[in-house]
Amino acid sequence: MGLWNSIRYYNTVKYLQIKSKKLACLKWSIHGIIFISICVILFWKKEYQENSHLVSSVTAKVKGVAVTKDSDLEGVLWDVADHSGLPQGKDSFFVVTNAIVTKNQKQGSCPEVPDSGKKCRSNKDCTKGYTDQKSNGVQTGKCVDFDWSVKTCEVFAWCPIEKRRVGPKPAILGSAENFTVLIKNNIGFPNFNYTNRNILPHMNDTYLRGCIFNRTTDPYCPIFRLGNIVQEARENFTEMAIEGGVIAIQINWECNLDRLFHKCIPEYSFRRLDEKNSNKTIFPGLNFRFARNYKQNGVEERTLFKTYGIRFDVMVTGKAGKFNLIKLITYIGSTLAYFGVTIIVVDFLLANYVHPSCCKKEVKSYYTGKKYETVEYQLEMRDVSNREGQDCESSP
Q1: For residue 82, what are the CA distances in angstroms to 59, 169, 176, 183, 223?
Q2: Cβ proximity of 113 and 152 under 8 Å
Q3: In sequence order, what E strands does the chain have?
Q4: Which residue, 148, 137, 79, 71, is CA-closest to 105?
């Protein structure tokens, strides 16, 4: 019967109207607060827009030359092919700032460096053919003099072995802070079939030849001075150049693609990614080795470089938004329920905490009686049983 009645009849909510200016003010005040909150969120977070993810590509071109002042490399010119020609992976570039150079290495037998090899007293302490991760070569089984105070196991390796363990101070390429890099960033938002790049439409060849990124005077120039990048990351280039490190160049695209408020320009920020404190990490900075091989009198030789430098990782993030009617309707529909909070608040206050100056006691009692009906379960069941008994007695 309950289901049949719900099909046959229409039910609606019953409202009680209370003539009270103070309660009306309270109601509209709550409505106003809710309405303002909904509008602020709607426009602040752009809930009326459909969003699209970003796809990006980055290329970087470093320019600059420097002459080293270290005793081993005094007067040597380093150009782009020398200091920035080492690939570091996608969306990254590396600039050499310091180096330890070991010249004229050729394969042969020589004493192992004490820090890398095993100290010895006699040939019995050395094992022919033995090597480990720290070794620079393979042991020959002989114990030889490293210098007048220490003996080490002889190894078959590229000799002479690199002896210096700490980079020169100051860095031999400290002037790399004056190098510049042109970063070209192309981005797209597939959902809107929209593309853009960080070289903005007004940037012609004349402008690009003379601009350098500056947070205040030229915040959109795509050419950066390396010293300024490190300074923006709150680091000291001279100190960082000694052991190297990793700097993030962050490009953020927050694009509004609505016609009236169209805006899609990059915002740059910078920060250091690696741990610079030597007390907190075993191997601070960034370094790696490479060699340049050549032949001298028919014998293959090489120059070994242990290079320290700064790796710059270009990280691109962002999103785009564009007006979408369905998103707007969905947001409005989802927020209508918040207006129901007003009824809950006013009913609760009216039933429990309303001051007599707002509503008379009789009005409050009358409202409570009309709004809430109390049913005693046991009394109700007793009345039902009595009625059923009377019906049975009256029946023939």
Answers
A1: 19, 20, 12, 20, 21
A2: yes
A3: 49-52, 55-63, 66-67, 77-78, 92-111, 138-145, 151-159, 180-189, 194-197, 223-225, 245-256, 266-272, 287-296, 299-323
A4: 137
Percent of the chain scored above 70 by pLDDT?
82
Q: What is the pTM of this model?
A: 0.76
**Would you state the torsion angle of the CA atoms of residues 302, 303, 308, 310, taken in this order, to the nearest 10 degrees?**
-70
Q: According to the model, what pLDDT value does residue 45 have? A: 84
- 25, pLDDT greater than 90: no
Return the SS3 of 15: coil
The dihedral over CA atoms of 19, 22, 27, 33, expressed in degrees to the nearest 10, equals 160
Give 392: exposed, middle or buried? Use CB within 10 Å, 0-12, 13-18, 19+.
Answer: exposed
In whole angstroms, give the CA distance from residue 235 to residue 277.
12
Q: How far apart are the first and last CA of the chain?
A: 28
CA distances from 144 to 35, 125, 154 (A): 87, 11, 6
User: Secondary structure of the chain: what % helix, strand, coil (to 5)?
Assistant: 30, 35, 35
